[in-house]
Design goal:
The structure holds 2 protein chains of 2 kinds.
Chain A lengths: L6 H22 L5 E3 L3 E4 L3 E4 L1 H10 L5 H18 L2 H5 L3 H14 L2 H4 L9 H16 L9 H12 E4 L2 E4 L5 H14 L3 H6 L1 H9 L5 E5 L9 H5 L26 H5 L5 E5 L1 H9 L1
Antiparallel strand pairs in A: 1-2, 2-3, 4-5, 6-7
Helix pairs in contact in A: 1-8, 2-7, 5-9, 7-11, 8-9
Chain B lengths: L10 H29 L15 H7 L5 H7 L17 E2 L11 E2 L46 E4 L5 H4 L5 H5 L7 E8 L5 E8 L9 H5 L7 E4 L1 H4 L13 H9 L27
Antiparallel strand pairs in B: 1-2, 3-6, 4-5
The chains are: A mainly alpha, B alpha+beta.
Chain lengths: ~280, ~280
């Protein structure tokens, strides 16, 4: 295997694990680089970052939210809105590692080939957003946050492992059961079931990143129609242009994970900046 | 005549069926999530960090970022003699803690709150779930640890050995607000005739609920323990007045007769009625 076949995969794992480690180090050794967790963090104890979906739920629950969380959610929304698109899912989220493992095992165990067809809509995530907001309003509690596997896994690693009096103390919570269920669901029930169908956090970032600049670009002249890209893509419907049109992937569900670019041996896929910039150039 | 009629599915039928399908799915999801979320609210006995909003507002407003718990465990005082990190007071709730998952709480018998002068856990809160104004002295505009409010200590006089007549003042000496939050009340021990009971009595107006007394208590299961203020305290109501207290007397003087309603279901009956006639318990 060439390095170019796993380049973005490795970069993503480095990104995910580094972020997780910085959070962990902030709790255990008091590092100030990145404190908090994926709900809200601070960079160098100054710049706040907040999960926009958690904020929406809190507002729906009727909370009077502090200004730092508002600024933090704004910073995150601007960042993914302008640049990353849905990059949170593939470059930051720890559940991505769990569901990627499930998807990889599916391919290795040929579960894709013998699967009983359980079909669920890929739009469920947008319904989940609405449901979470309604339930938050009814119960007066950010409702999805009580089952959110992202923050559950995140917190279990950050606060579940501690170094007390020079000995490592591990105290993991039952919430990890959610993570296990998602793994099994993705492995045996629906391919890319959680991240590609249900997760409202991914849905929120999809909506936020509608106009973002970083896009995967397809060059159909180079394409040999091997379809490796569609096989690995967690949102394979976004690659509808493969072998047909030389355009950018504009569907909002693309997570910019770059796996398609990795597996492509024909140089038919690559990152590009912006669908709008390109259009303007074509006009002029 | 068994020829099957081909059923035409009109676009209107398809449209309404789709809506019904989605409404059904949405209702199912809402039901499941609402049921779980309602169940996931904390037990009313949960002790929150100092300066926390009331429980209902707190679980709404807390974003579960853990910055308070991080500030607590990493404070410079939280090290033993060799410089190793000790356990922090604040813990982030896990799914099996019967506390809303991801919210901070503490268990005094495990690790009590040490009432730090600089209150490191409160200013770091980004969401306002820990309200810094609650621990800021309005006169000096500085953080005041005496204004913390996590709960109130309560004594079970049956298991407290000081009430038996044994000499123990562990809680009294552990209290950071020494001789203010817990006072020792001297009573004559008539059983021996020559000893005194040194009974710990809590002043709920001063007690912050830090739990150092609960941690220090020598009994197997602590005889002094912290409860949230709403659970621990009663409320006499406005119409009981301490006649010997000038401030309380003022409360009566300031009241307007028009504001006072003394009529209730019972008093609305004429005095001629037999007192308990028609009254149901």
């Amino acid at each position: 295997m060439k390095f170019s076949n796993i380049k973005y995969l490795i970069l993503r794992r480095v990104s995910q694990l580094t972020i997780m480690f910085l959070y962990f180090a902030a709790n255990v050794w008091g590092w100030k680089i990145l404190q908090g967790n994926l709900s809200t963090s601070t960079i160098f104890s100054k710049i706040p970052l907040s999960d926009p979906f958690a904020l929406l739920q809190m507002l729906a629950a009727g909370a009077v939210v502090g200004v730092n969380v508002l600024i933090g959610a704004l910073i995150i929304s601007i960042f993914y809105g302008l640049i990353g698109g849905r990059a949170f899912c593939s470059w930051v989220c720890p559940i991505n590692m769990v569901t990627d493992l499930a998807a990889w095992l599916r391919r290795k165990l040929y579960i894709d080939k013998i699967e009983r067809k359980v079909w669920i809509s890929r739009n469920i995530r947008y319904y989940t957003i609405v449901i979470a907001l309604i339930v938050s309003a009814i119960t007066g509690l950010a409702a999805f946050e009580v089952i959110n596997p992202i923050t559950i896994l995140n917190r279990n690693i950050i606060y579940g492992i501690n170094i007390i009096n020079n000995t490592t103390v591990v105290a993991l919570g039952a919430g990890l059961g959610f993570v296990l269920v998602i793994f099994l669901f993705d492995l045996f029930v629906v391919k890319n079931g959680w991240c590609g169908h249900i997760c409202p956090v991914g849905g929120t970032y999809s909506l936020i990143g509608k106009f973002s600049l970083l896009r995967v670009k397809h060059t159909s002249e180079n394409c040999t129609l091997c379809m490796k890209c569609k096989e690995v893509c967690p949102e394979s419907q976004v690659l509808h242009m493969i072998g047909k049109d030389s355009i950018t992937v504009n569907d909002i569900e693309c997570t910019n994970c770059g796996r398609c670019i990795d597996v492509c041996d024909d140089d038919a896929l690559g990152f590009s900046i912006g669908k709008y910039i390109k259009k303007e150039k074509a006009k002029s | 005549m068994a020829d099957k009629k081909k059923v035409e599915i009109s676009s209107r039928r398809r449209f309404f069926t789709n809506i019904a399908h989605n409404v059904g799915l949405g209702a199912m999801g809402t039901l499941l999530l609402a049921g779980y979320a309602q169940k996931a609210k904390s037990s009313p006995l949960t002790l929150r960090p100092p300066a926390a909003l009331g429980e209902a507002d707190f679980i709404k407003t807390c974003i579960k970022c853990g910055l308070c718990a991080e500030a607590c465990v990493n404070r410079p005082q939280n090290r033993d003699k060799e410089g190793n990190q000790k356990k922090g007071t604040l813990k982030m709730a896990k799914a099996n803690d019967s506390v809303t998952i991801g919210t901070p709480f503490f268990t005094p018998r495990d690790v009590p709150c040490f009432m730090c002068d600089d209150i490191p856990c409160v200013p770091v809160c980004p969401s306002g779930a820990l309200d810094i104004n609650k621990v800021t002295n309005p006169k000096t505009k500085k953080l005041d640890f005496k204004m913390m409010d996590m709960g109130v200590a309560v004594v079970d006089v049956h298991s407290c050995i000081a009430f038996w007549g044994l000499q123990c003042d562990a809680c009294y000496r552990a209290c950071p607000l020494l001789d203010e939050a817990i006072k020792l009340q001297y009573n004559r021990n008539s059983r021996t005739g020559k000893h005194a009971f040194l009974e710990p009595v809590i002043n709920p107006d001063v007690c912050t609920g830090c739990g150092l007394c609960e941690k220090a208590c020598v009994t197997e299961k602590p005889a002094i323990f912290v409860l949230p203020r709403e659970v621990a305290q009663g409320k006499p109501g406005d119409h009981y007045v301490r006649g010997w207290d000038k401030k309380d007397q003022q409360r009566v003087k300031d009241r307007k007769a028009s504001d006072i309603k003394t009529e209730d279901e019972r008093s609305s009956k004429t005095p001629v009625d037999y007192l308990n006639k028609g009254l149901e318990y």
